[in-house]
Specification:
The protein has a domain of about 90 residues: GMP Synthetase, Chain A, domain 3. The protein is built from 17 helices and 27 strands. The strands form six sheets. Strands 2-1-11-10-12-13-14-15-16 form a nine-stranded mixed sheet. Strand 5, helix 5 and strand 6 form a beta-alpha-beta unit. The chain starts with a helix and ends with a helix.
């Protein structure tokens, strides 16, 4: 219970030394090679003068440098600030300044944005890397050279005093000096910023102990199917997101898996070509990605005979998508639930008895309760989901008042999600409190509307929001992405009437080419409401 992530990492490198740990764009790195690279990067960070507790931002897509940098930073006693490479300069400035970041590791394609905020954010050290910096020659020269030519006009200026990643690794390799920082379970491991979709992004303080506890909890839930040192885990979701960070990178290390890193999952044809090269056994994704893959004809032709587990997180899984995935792959999706503030996993469907439309049951050592106006709700009634367990964050970085708003004196964390608990313990998320639509006094949950209407064969995806209405105070408005240009608003409403009670039927329907999404593909209802 008092383990650190570095102890987990060191044990994995001993147990699975010659097994592949991560693979990306045709290059694999074994656990023994990963351990050497992590040690080199940790020594380099100490050479810079970084000390225990300092923060380093890692701003990379899913490439081999990501796990090397994370575990190198943790070994040196630093706290990792995971940062979306696609952030705007203002978003980066807020996060870097708020976290007090001293160093940044950034992909060369985004170096110009770091350079623009470097002085204002107080960043002392910038390490710049290219996609294939950890690949063997000549593959490294070919990939980096091609990308250098393709992106030559968009990379921007090199940050002041920037250090090349390969140079940094060489400096670490040339030093034998390393001062063990004395890491303990209560030390900060990740400063993980919330998405900021409901306000200013806040840094959730996740300790080594928080994450080790969640790893233990998730591994216990998957123990019946996980073969240590033998799994090939597909990781298309960005590792800078807490779900992928734990469920792909950290869990892969803990269980000795070969984690297949996908740098650009939005390139569906390229993604499918990469999958064709591997006999993958585990797949971590989310609803929009599963939906997109199932619409790709080449994906249908893949060999799914080795696939034994698909896990969905990050957003609600629709029954239509779950059914399509089962038809194409022969594999049921196991849905889970979590939040940044809970490291992140709270609940997961049992792998042998997944129930579509639910998030499963709470993980071991995790307490849940449902409340309304501060009081427990009756069995089967909806209420706000509250969570208590060893995975709950230490609090929000430098925001004690914000922490008190969501974590009470007894350690209960208020999720902001409305749930119902079934008689046998399965939990069903109804919706977020702020997304709930009130039509003439009746509660309408967008997830329910979307799940029902997405069953229409001509609808690729949809999103429901509440809009002001003179007659009913609020009304349901549905944004629809359709594969049929002849589909009309009346068609959608007529279909909805067959699936939903009258007050839940969308009063307004608007067709769109696509829906605004977060960096992990979660539909941003707030942007739709603001239209």
């Amino acid at each position: 219970m008092n383990q650190t992530l570095i102890q987990i990492f060191d044990q994995a490198c001993r147990d699975y030394a010659e097994e592949p740990a991560f693979s990306c764009l045709g290059q694999s790195i074994r656990f023994s090679e990963l351990e050497l690279a992590v040690s080199e990067f940790a020594r380099f960070l100490q050479q810079l003068g970084l000390v225990k507790g300092d923060r380093i931002a890692i701003q990379l897509p899913n490439i081999l440098q990501f796990p090397v940098a994370v575990f190198g930073a943790l070994r040196a006693g630093l706290a990792v600030v995971n940062t979306n490479p696609l952030y705007t300069e203002s978003e980066m400035l807020h996060q870097f300044a708020d976290a007090g970041v001293r160093a940044v590791l950034v992909l060369v394609d985004f170096q110009g944005k770091v350079a623009a905020v470097q002085k204002q954010a107080g960043i002392e050290f910038v390490i710049v890397t290219e996609v294939a910096d950890l690949h063997s020659a000549p593959r490294r020269w070919l990939i980096n050279g091609l990308l250098r030519w393709r992106n030559r006009k968009s990379r921007g200026h090199l940050p002041e005093g920037a250090i090349r990643f390969r140079q940094a690794m060489s400096r670490g390799r040339g030093s034998s000096v390393f001062h063990a920082p004395g890491i303990v379970a209560g030390d900060l491991a990740f400063l993980q910023y919330t998405g900021g979709t409901t306000g200013v992004a806040k840094g959730a303080m996740l300790s080594h102990g928080n994450l080790v506890a969640n790893l233990r909890q998730v591994m216990a839930a998957l123990s019946s199917i996980w073969l240590p040192g033998r799994e090939v885990l597909v990781a298309p979701l960005p590792l800078y997101h807490i779900f992928a960070c734990l469920a792909c990178m950290l869990l892969g290390i803990r269980g000795g898996a070969n984690v297949l890193l996908i740098p650009n999952p939005r390139d569906i044809p390229g993604f499918v070509r990469e999958l064709r090269r591997h006999r993958f056994t585990l797949f971590m994704g989310l609803n929009t990605l599963f939906n997109a893959l199932c619409r790709n004809e080449e994906f249908h032709k893949l060999d799914f005979s080795s696939l034994k587990l698909t896990v969905s997180g990050g957003m609600a899984l629709t029954s239509d998508t779950a059914e399509k995935w089962l038809q194409v792959t022969g594999n049921r999706i196991v849905e889970g639930y979590g939040l940044t503030e809970t490291s992140p996993v709270v609940a997961l469907n049992p792998v042998d008895a997944p129930r579509v439309g639910t998030i499963g049951k709470p993980l071991e050592d995790t307490e849940v309760r449902l409340v309304s106006n501060g009081q427990p709700v009756s069995p089967g009634e909806p209420g706000e989901l509250q969570v208590r367990g060893p995975q709950v964050m230490q609090g929000y970085w430098q925001r004690p008042e914000a922490t008190k708003e969501v974590v009470d004196a007894d350690g209960w964390f208020s999720t902001g999600d409305i749930a119902v608990q079934e008689a046998d313990g399965y939990l069903r998320i109804v919706d977020r409190i702020k997304d709930m639509i009130i039509v003439s006094g009746f509660n309408v949950y967008p997830n329910e509307v979307e799940d029902a209407i997405s069953l229409h064969p001509d609808i690729i995806e949809c999103a429901a929001v509440g809009v002001a209405d003179a007659e009913t105070v609020e009304a349901v408005k549905l944004f629809v992405v359709s594969s049929n240009s002849a589909l009309t608003e009346a068609d959608v409403r007529n279909f909805a009437r067959q699936q939903l009670t009258g007050y839940k039927v969308p009063k307004y329907v608007e067709f769109a080419d696509d829906l605004p999404k977060s960096n992990v593909g979660k539909v941003l209802r707030k942007e739709l409401r603001d239209k």
